[in-house]
Structures are given as C-alpha cells and as structure tokens.
Amino acid sequence: MSREQRLAEVFVELADTLVDDFDVLDLLHTLCERSVELLQADAAGLILADQRSALQVMASTTEEARVLELFGLQNDEGPCLDCFSTGQQMVNIDLDEAQERWPRFHAATVALGYRSTHALPMRLRGEVIGVLNLFCVERAVLSSRDVAVGQALCDVATVGLLQERAVRHGEVLAEQLQGALNSRILLEQAKGVLSERAGVGVDEAFGSMRAYARRTRQPLGGVAEAVIAGTIDAAELRTTSH
C-alpha cells in the first residue's frame, strides 16, 4: 500500500468519529498511534485543556511518553507547553540544542533515550485545545510535507472534538472533555490493576483493554471500570487482544 493510500485510510478513520457518542479517548489514542506511524516517530503523547483550562495528559503510545508529558506539565517547561501557549508548531527540535531552554525537560527526555521532538497544536480558528507531542530516538527532521500531514491529522481530530452536531455550546465540550479526563483516570488505575493481575507491562495491559473495548463496542472508560471492579478478568482480555 502506498503512503498516499494509507493517509487516505487514516483520514477516513479519524473522520469516522464524527458521529454521536463517539469515544473521545479512543480518538485521541488513534491520533497518537497514526501520527507515530506516518511521521516515523517512536512515541507520542497528547495533552488537552480541561473545563478549568488546566492541561491534562490524555493519551500516549507508551508509558514513557505519558511520563514525559506529565513531567513537562509538572515542571512547567517543554515544547508542548510553548506550543499550547502560542498555538504555533514546534518541530525538528534537537534536544541537545534545547538544553538551556528546557533543562529539566531535556534531562528527562534524553534519559529515556530520545534525541528530538515535535509539537503540533490541536486548534481550530485560533482556539487551541491541546497539543500532540512526538518523540524520536534519532535526531529526526520532518519535511514541510510531513509537518503538513501531522497538522492535518491534528486538525481532523480537533474537528471531531468540536463537531457541531455533538457540541452546540462551549459547556458541552467542557463536559465532554471532563468526562474523557475522568475516564482517563480510571484507565490509568485499570492499567496498573491489570498489569499486576496478568503479570504484563502497562502498555500491554492497555492494548488488551483497548482491543476488548473495540471488539465489544464499549467505551474505554467502561472497560477500565469493569477491570477495576473485577467483572472482566485478565484471561478474557488477553484472549480478545490476539
């Protein structure tokens, strides 16, 4: 399959969320995964502003990426925060060259083996609601075409969150994002619970839950709640993920 064909598939996949009651968490994780795939990054993390305008980590492709996003928020530094505040893309950042600008973020990121990063805003008509951050093991350089593709993916996902049919007023969007945040908290708890019960890593635990949610057409938050309650066991989830 050519890259153009794959791009078309991904845009259709993201646009398919433009329906009532779509799963916000699944949309955000899909955006992270497809961005890593198409832009040849090694990991991705995504932050969104909640109803109080506080930034929250909402999705990631790996546990390391999630930790880095949390670290950036807690230490108030990093390209994702600058991208959110300005609404401007921050791409092709060589972390060694950015050491003075973001010393703590630089140290944490390099410690996990990453050498470059990119940050793309999730925005619509000047309103920035989040940022997609990409991490690369090598000193990767995105071409202008790659940056355009990455921004287009973010734009499609943003439209999905701000869709007119489901979001007619600003408070509805806030409630929707707050609901996703609450589900995310449950999801993090469930990843730890399942990891311990099944004796697997947290990334594999998440993969099992997501595969189960997709197969059974349930929201991720509901599956996470069931895992915590013990009404879905580890064996059932592992079977579903294969």
Characterise this structure.
The protein has 242 residues and is of the alpha+beta class. Helix content is 57%, strand content 15%. It has ten helices and five strands. A five-stranded antiparallel beta sheet has the order 2-1-5-4-3, with helices on both faces. A hairpin with a 2-residue loop joins β4 (116-124) and β5. α1 packs antiparallel against α2 (24-39), α3 (63-75) runs antiparallel to α5 (103-111) and α8 packs across α9 (220-229). The longest helix has 29 residues, at 170-198. The two termini are 24 Å apart.
> Percent helix among the residues?
55-70%
Order of helices and strands: HHEEHHEHEEHHHHH
Q: Indicate the radius of gyration in whole angstroms.
A: 17 Å
List the uncertain runs.
none
Helical stretch count?
10
Dominant shape:
globular
How many strands in all?
5
Average pLDDT over all residues? 87
What structural class do the secondary elements suggest?
alpha+beta
Walk across the major sheet and give the strand order. 2-1-5-4-3
N- to C-terminal distance: 24 Å
| Main β sheet profile | 5 strands, antiparallel
Strand content: 15-25%
